[in-house]
Hints:
The complex is a heterodimer of chains A (151) and B (653). In chain A, 36% of the residues lie in helices and 29% in strands. By secondary structure, chain A is an alpha+beta fold. Chain A folds into two domains: 1-33; 36-148, CATH 2.40.50.140. Chain A has a five-stranded mixed beta barrel with strand order 2-4-5-7-6. With 653 residues, chain B is α+β, with helices and mostly antiparallel strands. The longest helix of chain B has 32 residues, at 201-232. The A-B interface holds A 3, 6, 9-10, 13-14, 17-18, 21-22, 24-25, 28-29, 31-36, 54, 66, 69-71, 89-92, 94-95, 105, 123-125, 127, 129-131, 134 and B 161, 163, 234, 299-301, 303, 341, 343-344, 349, 352-353, 356-357, 360, 363-364, 367-368, 371, 381-386, 388-389, 392-393, 396-397, 518-520, 570, 576-581, 598-599, 601, 605, 607, 609. β1 (33-37) of chain A pairs antiparallel with β1 of chain B.
Amino acid sequence: MKARHKRLALIISGVALVALAATLILNAFRSNMVFFFTPTQVTKGEAPKSGSFRIGGLVESGSLQRDSDGLTVHFVVTDTVQRTKVTYQGILPDLFKEGKGVVAQGKLGPDGAFIASDVLAKHDENYMPPEAAAALKQAKENSTKTLIVPK
Amino acid sequence: MIPEIGHFALIIALLVALVQGSVPIIGAATGNVAWMAFARPAARVQFLLVLIATGCLAWAFASMDYSVLYVASNSNSKLPLQYRIAALWGGHEGSLLLWAFILSIWTVAVTFFSRHLPDAMRARILGVMGLVSVGFLLFMLTVSNPFERLLPAAVDGRDLNPLLQDPGMVFHPPMLYMGYVGFSVAFAFAIAALLGGELDAAWARWSRPWTTLAWLFLTVGIMGGSNWAYYELGWGGWWFWDAVENASFMPWLAGTALIHSLAVTEKRGSFKAWTVLLAICAFSLSLLGTFLVRSGVLTSVHAFATDPQRGLFILVFLVVVIGGSLALFAWRAPSVGRGGTFAVLSRESLLLANNVLLVVAAASVLLGTLYPLFLDALGMGKISVGPPYFDAVFAPLMAPAVFLMAVGPLARWKKAELPDLARRLRWAFAVSLVTALLLPLLLGHWTPMIGLGLFLAFWVFAASIQTLRERLPANGQPVLPRVRGVPRAWWGMWLAHVGIGVFILGVTVVKGYETEAAVRMHPGDISHLSGYDFTFDGVAEVQGPNYVATEGHLRVSHNGQPVATLNPQKRLYTVQNMPMTEAGIAASLSGDLYASMGESLDQGEWSIRLYRKPMVDWIWGGCALMALGGLLALSDRRYRVTRRRRIEGEELP
Lengths: 151, 653
């Protein structure tokens, strides 16, 4: 083999390797993207019926209930306009509190309630997860819009 | 008064950095020796000034000066002294100051260990580091001044984020920053080489120890962060593919590639342009990492206040540094020349393949970390990319990389023969294959991932033994002189590779065989997990310096024999009224028993998480071995010899 051929072989195998890796990565990326929805969007039915997504907002005050097994909890996530019921089995994070921001990841159950596989809470007292903050903001904007339209 | 001195020192430091970043580089370009000579004193003066500034801020923290805004927001009078000092880097402004301070430490180290460099080269290196420093000092002085006053002063501080009040957090950020900023030396070497148009084996030999040292710190820093997450977050996890972890992992991957490509450049003169590009990438990713983490773009414990002005400055700075250096690379890279040729199968080609895989891995992490941010910034929706993506991508990328890693040290430079390699490695291959098939049956169950992980781990071990046998042939001499006859750099490489094997073994076993249970326990209850019996003895109140804790008492026994007691705590930090979990862990080489407190239920009942984590400590053990390997490589004789020879040479008339 001439040096030129060798270099060509090396370059071709390198490009093939990178192409393979890129396909793999993009494929994995597409199938693992998790979208975020607000309770309003969930109520409107915009969220995927099957498949996992994230939901965020405030934990409605007084909505936290615990099953008799002590580990299954139910609460309501709200963006102040719409509410979504959430069920979670497991131990809630330290900073989970009623009236505070929360983000949950999971799927919609058959009854329309959200079955969370993960509950993420914020990292300090005054910090709001950006997703939760966005949900509140969006809901506020939408509600002002509906107020303006009738005029 | 003290904070003003610190502020003033920062302003002077900026002016000195401007001189350091311009005069020596112009001097090197025009051949003006006097101008080049500015570099060293300027770097040292700048170090002293930043040291004064850091000292002033530390003093403000130690003396609880709550008229300084940054101190008031990150400290509290009840906070123990060591955490008051660590709070210096607990927030955005202070961590930038730490960055600048560490940069000045590296720069001053370069001034001391660069006697053997040509004047122009040293002037350019220190100049480039000065320019980086200008960016950071300017950032602090314009939009994130740590010395900003709060008038009237606060009565008491807002306290440090309780998550950060931990011995691990005292060391983790400085270690990580030593790594991040350490890549600035390799970066400065690369830019200096591009500016000067000369890039030879000597250049690679100078850059190597600096890069290895930076990589070593980064490895230790990441290890510390992972360990901290394990015992502090209470989830029993050690890596979450969280954006902030990724931010530190990307420079690590690029730095690992850089170390290996530098080795080729030094030994064989090949990969010159590639090495330079990697040096630029490693540092760019470090900068990106710092800013991603510290700017508040990401949702995390590390994120602080978001301020659009800061974001803009950061963006401009990143564009100038990364864009500028890449443009310089495009312009000057052809001038650095090509290296020696090598066959399709050779140590060079194996290292190249590893490099490509590492860089692709870094790129995949970058994609997963940045894409959600881009989408959000463009208003196209909010998405997140979690661990499933990284798991799916990483195993297929790293498996061939690790496989080749074990082969690399056995392959000859320039040209290797496949039949020869296959013959030398056939036993290693057989042993690892058999282990991968049989060991899982002994441990419980077999899955493809467990099989793959065990195969790779034992492949690394077996191939390392083969490498060792070839390096230390049994020639009848005693072992010790033979061991000492091999350069320490080689031992460093060997140990770091074994460390990878240990790491993979730990990850595989803990992922494959860990068990967990979320249970509800009444005092006196017994829970069973993997043959261990956990008896809950109730809780007691514990009073900490700035928190109150409920401590759970769990006795663990195995086959009736008591093996450990676990005391997980649920703390409430009183100033911020913030709850925190402190896991109770009984660690051993064979595995950890881990418990963390959930919530208090009715009638003295608690929800408790129990884990059995087999061989989890091997993960950090593997990292420690890698770091130790780096340390050994650094102590190699040839780095000292070249220096000594140079010094002796200088003393000649």
